[in-house]
């Protein structure tokens, strides 16, 4: 029996949902600490270039696959290349989403804890050491970390089981605009702190002498992570898109918003880092130490801190929605009758899978995999191996399996795409994207 395909009710709903998936913690949490631990401006500029010249072409490829087939990740590849192993791209994406959401929701749980504590925490008089101690106490408490991890996934399940229109789209239309506005307020305060200019220089003035093959691979992985690429999330999201919507315009809007938020995140974090005498190499805790310090230095800081943590939770949830949606859509094949049960089943399975990550900074902190905690190892595997691998396969699949005229016709629906723009996109996708990813992989393992 054929099930009626869900659709986004509006273009703005799709763009905000896709942007929410793309922005989430990728731009706000991960990008600042990746920039800080990989040399600052050089990494940031490489990331921005990769987002434009690798991420945008790949985003359009996923959009084209999804809307053309009107199928979720696994079925989309089966439709375009039946009776071939190409559907493993979708299966790899679902597997990657499982792993990613399992540790991503742990960070979401930290935000839940901070949101709850912000209702009673008086920021005035607290030093950055105090904020660092608060964070370490938060993530090392096993009951708190696992409980918050569960609560975050519970919120995700409740929204995703409602479907596209009544669940994901309804909430992201409210969450994302509010986040943008408050972020600008934080940036204005951060860049006016004493000593903030050093942080701005760190972010925008590159020192390419420190760039290595691993830096390049991490920048590639971050550009894909920040746009939710390589897992076929955008294949699934675009399958709900109406035929008369312009894919190039939608992709351009999403990439522009992602870059805009990335720059805002850098300007919110690094001027404050240098102003408060912190090290930009703090790693994953960076945002949880720096931002409270920023809020402590402004009038009504505690109120603003609560509002920001609430909106940060929203942004984190929008990414979690897309990850769980990818999994649920792939197993239910758009059967609404199976959605609720599947959402609960796989959401709870992801919770169990994420427990070791939740305990990585507490009772199992001494257990290491290749010299890293379980959380960090999983993050490295997903961000720097699985996501770039998935992106590489999609970049090969799209131009080599789908006929060129089919791609042009799909991209032309709802828009008047100039031929030279199509040819530029096609060239970047067919040659530049895969070569860049392969080069980074070979450099990482020491072959070149």
Automatic annotation (TrEMBL):
<feature type="transmembrane region" description="Helical">
    <location>
        <begin position="143"/>
        <end position="164"/>
    </location>
</feature>
<dbReference type="Pfam" id="PF00209">
    <property type="entry name" value="SNF"/>
</dbReference>
<dbReference type="InterPro" id="IPR000175">
    <property type="entry name" value="Na/ntran_symport"/>
</dbReference>
<feature type="transmembrane region" description="Helical">
    <location>
        <begin position="286"/>
        <end position="314"/>
    </location>
</feature>
<keyword id="KW-1133">Transmembrane helix</keyword>
<feature type="transmembrane region" description="Helical">
    <location>
        <begin position="385"/>
        <end position="403"/>
    </location>
</feature>
<feature type="transmembrane region" description="Helical">
    <location>
        <begin position="92"/>
        <end position="116"/>
    </location>
</feature>
<keyword id="KW-0812">Transmembrane</keyword>
<feature type="transmembrane region" description="Helical">
    <location>
        <begin position="424"/>
        <end position="447"/>
    </location>
</feature>
<feature type="transmembrane region" description="Helical">
    <location>
        <begin position="346"/>
        <end position="365"/>
    </location>
</feature>
<keyword id="KW-0813">Transport</keyword>
<dbReference type="InterPro" id="IPR047218">
    <property type="entry name" value="YocR/YhdH-like"/>
</dbReference>
<dbReference type="GO" id="GO:0016020">
    <property type="term" value="C:membrane"/>
</dbReference>
<feature type="transmembrane region" description="Helical">
    <location>
        <begin position="41"/>
        <end position="61"/>
    </location>
</feature>
<feature type="transmembrane region" description="Helical">
    <location>
        <begin position="250"/>
        <end position="274"/>
    </location>
</feature>
<feature type="transmembrane region" description="Helical">
    <location>
        <begin position="12"/>
        <end position="29"/>
    </location>
</feature>
<feature type="transmembrane region" description="Helical">
    <location>
        <begin position="176"/>
        <end position="197"/>
    </location>
</feature>
<dbReference type="InterPro" id="IPR037272">
    <property type="entry name" value="SNS_sf"/>
</dbReference>
<keyword id="KW-0472">Membrane</keyword>
<feature type="transmembrane region" description="Helical">
    <location>
        <begin position="217"/>
        <end position="238"/>
    </location>
</feature>
<protein>
    <submittedName>
        <fullName>Sodium:neurotransmitter symporter</fullName>
    </submittedName>
</protein>
């Amino acid at each position: 029996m054929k099930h009626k395909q869900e659709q986004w009710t509006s273009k703005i709903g799709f763009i905000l949902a896709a942007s929410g998936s793309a922005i989430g913690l990728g731009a706000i949490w991960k990008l600042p600490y990746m920039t800080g631990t990989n040399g600052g401006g050089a990494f940031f500029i490489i990331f921005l270039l990769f987002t434009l010249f690798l991420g945008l072409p790949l985003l359009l490829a996923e959009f084209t696959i999804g809307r053309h087939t009107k199928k979720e990740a696994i079925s989309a590849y089966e439709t375009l290349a039946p009776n071939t192993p190409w559907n493993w791209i979708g299966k790899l994406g679902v597997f990657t989403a499982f792993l990613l959401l399992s540790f991503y929701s742990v960070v979401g749980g930290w935000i839940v804890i901070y949101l709850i504590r912000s209702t009673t925490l008086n920021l005035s008089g607290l030093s950055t050491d105090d904020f660092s101690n608060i964070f370490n106490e938060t993530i090392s408490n096993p009951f708190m970390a696992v409980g918050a991890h569960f609560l975050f996934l519970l919120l995700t399940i409740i929204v995703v089981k409602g479907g596209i229109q009544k669940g994901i789209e309804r909430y992201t239309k409210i969450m994302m605009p509010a986040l943008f506005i408050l972020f600008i307020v934080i940036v204005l305060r951060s860049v006016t702190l004493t000593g903030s200019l050093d942080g701005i220089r760190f972010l925008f003035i590159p020192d390419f002498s420190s760039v290595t093959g691993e830096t390049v691979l991490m920048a590639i992985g971050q550009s894909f992570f920040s746009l939710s690429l390589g897992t076929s999330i955008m294949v699934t999201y675009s399958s709900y898109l109406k035929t008369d919507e312009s894919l190039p315009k939608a992709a351009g809007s999403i990439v522009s918003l992602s870059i805009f938020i990335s720059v805002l995140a850098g300007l919110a974090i690094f001027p404050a880092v240098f102003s408060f005498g912190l090290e930009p190499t703090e790693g994953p805790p960076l945002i949880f130490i720096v931002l409270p310090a920023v809020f402590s230095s402004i009038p009504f800081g505690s109120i603003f801190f609560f509002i920001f943590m609430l909106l940060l939770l929203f942004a984190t949830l929008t990414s979690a929605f897309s990850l769980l949606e990818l999994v649920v859509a792939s197993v239910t094949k758009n059967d609404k009758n199976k959605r609720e049960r599947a959402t609960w089943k796989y959401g709870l399975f992801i919770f169990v899978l994420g427990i070791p990550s939740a305990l990585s900074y507490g009772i199992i902190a001494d257990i290491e995999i290749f010299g890293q905690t379980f959380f960090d190892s999983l993050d490295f595997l997903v961000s720097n191996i699985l996501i770039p691998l998935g992106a590489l396969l999609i970049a090969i699949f799209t131009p080599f399996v789908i006929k060129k005229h089919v791609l042009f016709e799909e991209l032309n629906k709802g828009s008047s795409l100039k031929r030279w723009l199509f040819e530029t996109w096609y060239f970047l996708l067919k040659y530049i994207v895969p070569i860049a990813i392969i080069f980074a992989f070979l450099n990482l393992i020491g072959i070149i």
